[in-house]
Amino acid sequence: MPLFTVGLLTRWLRAASPNGARAPVGATSTPESRAVQTLLKAAVERRGVPVLFISPLGHSIDTAFWIAVPTDQQRDRLAADADLATEFHRIFEDSGYLALVHAQWDKDWRRPQYDDKVRHEMAYQRHPSVTIESQESVDREQGGNWWHRMK
Which of 16, 23, 42, 57 lies closest to 134 in space, CA to CA? Predict the structure, then answer.
């Protein structure tokens, strides 16, 4: 499963998930981002899969949302669900979050202090993305460390 890489992470906060795993939490989370996270969580849970946590990441606005689920099997089932991907896109559009991301991105792109390297990293952040990952994989491959998985 390809992983979305986000640059420009200025800080990480730590928060405990319900199963005791430690997950990074986006430092830029806004009320709009938290509302989108609630909708993303509901979309996953309607498919019978519990969400352990959602971790938003971004530069000046959250553009990547990592959804943690318990098992590889659940992750793979959700990743193969084309209707879920469509619902995620609809959530971003219908909530106005996509327009908010585009407006912030356009504003940030013009900042004179940003060099070409920063602009290159920002190019990946123009559209919100969702990555679904399992606690089982993180336990097996990163010793339970979500920070290492997400960086």
Answer: 23
pLDDT in tens, 85-132: 999 999 999 999 988 888 887 777 666 666 666 655 655 566 788 999
What gap in Å lies between CA 10 and CA 12, rounded to an integer? 7
Rounded CA gap, 67 and 52, in Å?
A: 8
Distance, in Å, from the CA atom of 129 to the CA atom of 134, rounded to the nearest integer, reads: 17
55-93 pLDDT, tens digit per residue, is: 998 767 788 899 999 999 999 999 999 999 999 999 999
- Which residue ranges make up each domain of the chain? 13-150
Q: Are 45 and 51 in contact (CB under 8 A)?
A: yes
The rounded distance, in Å, linking the Cα atoms of 5 and 57 is: 10
Tally of CB atoms within 10 A around 143? 9
Strand-pair category, 22-25 with 53-58: unpaired
